[in-house]
Specification:
Helix content: 40-55%
Distance between the termini: 39 Å
Structural class: alpha+beta
Radius of gyration: 21 Å
Oligomer: single chain
Strand content: 15-25%
Number of helices: 5
Strand order of the largest sheet: 5-4-3-6
Low-confidence stretches: none
CATH superfamily of the largest domain: Winged helix-like DNA-binding domain superfamily/Winged helix DNA-binding domain
Shape: elongated
CATH topology of the largest domain: Arc Repressor Mutant, subunit A
Mean pLDDT: 80
Number of domains: 2
């Protein structure tokens, strides 16, 4: 644990991470067991996370991601976030190879929010184009499974 005065934040973040990353909503006892927190500490932190809409209790008493996550997700285009996260790696790849680098997500027969980084030319972002495999290089497609 940290000694920088942010121990409560670190503990709350660990609880929140366990809730959000869990396959099934974990119960209070499971969260206490896996975090090693005292029951009173875990209870106090979970209550604070609930007050701030970061977690909520489901009908079975388990903790699930709260409505604030849904609000955030509804205001964002997930492909924009993918591009933002991938861009530094794509830029490094382009610099290392001297080649144009593309990232696109296939949805049906279309490519959604593709980004093309041309060596030295910056980026071009397209909203949706036809799905084609072209060029001498290899393309990696990320398929939307929804």
């Amino acid at each position: 644990m940290t000694t920088t005065g942010t121990q409560a934040i670190d503990r709350a973040a660990e609880l929140l991470s366990r809730v959000v990353l869990a396959d099934e909503p974990p119960g209070f006892g499971e969260l206490v067991l896996h975090t090693g927190l005292a029951k009173s500490t875990a209870s106090r932190l979970l209550q604070a996370l609930e007050r701030h809409r970061l977690v909520h209790r489901d009908d079975s008493g388990g903790y699930a991601a709260g409505p604030l996550f849904a609000l955030y997700a509804s205001r964002r285009e997930p492909y924009d976030e993918l591009i933002r996260l991938a861009r530094p790696t794509l830029e490094q790849l382009g610099l290392a190879t001297g080649e144009t680098v593309n990232l696109a997500v296939a949805r049906g027969n279309a490519v959604v929010n593709g980004i093309e980084l041309k060596a030295g030319d910056g980026a071009a972002i397209s909203d949706e184009t036809s799905l084609t495999i072209k060029g001498d290089g290899a393309e990696v497609l990320l398929f939307d499974l929804n």
